[in-house]
Each structure stands twice: as C-alpha cells, then as structure tokens.
Amino acid sequence: MISYRITSTVIGLFIAIAIIFLVRKDYIHVRHTIWWLGLAVCSVLVGFFPETVDVVARWFGVNYPPTFFFSLGFAAMLIKILRMDIEFSRQEREIKRLTQRLAILEKRDREQED
C-alpha cells in the first residue's frame, strides 16, 4: 500500500512536469500555467508536510482533516471553472465585436466600389 505522502508528491511532480512540457510545446499559455504550477507545488508540499493539512483544518474548525483537504480541492476547482467561464465570455464578446467591425468595413468597401 502506497502512502498518501508519496502519492501526493508524485502527483504534484507529474503535474509540474506535464505543465512545463505543455508550455515548451506551446500548447498552453504561460499565464494559464500559474494556477497549475501552484496546484503542483501545493500537492508536493502536502506530500512532504502532511501535518500542515491537519493544522490548517483545525484552524478552520474541521474535525476530519481529509474532509477539509477535499473541500479545499473542490473549492479550487470551482474557482478555476469560474475563471474559465469569465475568460470564455470575454473571448466571445471580443469575437462578436471583431465580427461587427469586419462587417462594417466590408460594407464601407462595397459602398466605395459602387
């Protein structure tokens, strides 16, 4: 049976290596990597210092530390999804504006040709 310390450390290192690989291959923007590298660092830190989760859980009044750990992970995922939706909405708005500008310019060109 593998301890969760080793599992957490390996997952963190795997995420960090995967993110660095994806940045080098230009599959992901550098500004999007901060979140994932932070997650990888947290995972490695939990692997090296598992008692940290216990201490932080007690600060927040959680009696069973793994519950706090999973709740924190769930909250982080929700925040990440919200940020992705905000970015997606911004991109949609920008595409709509660019499409409208292009239509105006094409109309102006047609009017000048006539």
Description of the molecule:
The chain has 114 residues and is an all-alpha fold. 86% of the residues lie in helices and 0% in strands. It contains four helices and no strands. Helix 1 (4-24) packs antiparallel against helix 2 and helix 3 crosses helix 4 (65-113). The longest helix is centred in the C-terminal third of the chain and has 49 residues, at 65-113. The N and C termini lie far apart (79 Å). The mean pLDDT is 89.
Mean pLDDT: 89
For the largest beta-sheet, the strand count, sense and barrel status come to: none
Order of helices and strands: HHHH
**Which structural class do you get from the secondary structure elements?**
mainly alpha
Distance between the termini: 79 Å
Fraction of helical residues: over 70%
Ranges where pLDDT stays below 50 over 5 or more residues in a row are none
Taken from the alpha-carbon principal axes, the silhouette is elongated
Give the C-alpha Rg.
23 Å
Q: How much strand content do the residues show?
A: under 5%
